[in-house]
Specification:
47% helix; 10% strand; mainly alpha; single chain; two-stranded antiparallel sheet; 3 helices
């Protein structure tokens, strides 16, 4: 079972990935502005979230497994 911290990381990466998709790709500056406005900013390191988002594959995928996790095919099982 994933810890609450891992679940928060997964949520941050998945939301950041959605933002990057809407913006047409990963822009560090734009993603950082979004990130600083979220509840994630004080709890998770931006660099770790950015690194995960930059490795996002094309197509439908979601991050799972906390900071040590990875991209899995399909939509996330949790919001």
């Amino acid at each position: 079972m994933a810890s609450s911290r891992d679940a928060l990381f997964d949520l941050a990466v998945n939301r950041a990935g959605e933002v990057a998709s809407r913006l047409g790709g990963v822009s560090r500056r734009d993603l950082e502005v979004w990130y600083l406005k979220t509840r994630f900013a004080s709890r998770l390191p931006f660099e770790a979230v950015l690194d995960a988002v930059e490795r996002r594959p094309t197509g439908a995928a979601h991050w799972e497994g906390g900071p040590q996790g990875g991209w899995r095919p399909g939509p996330p099982t949790l919001p």
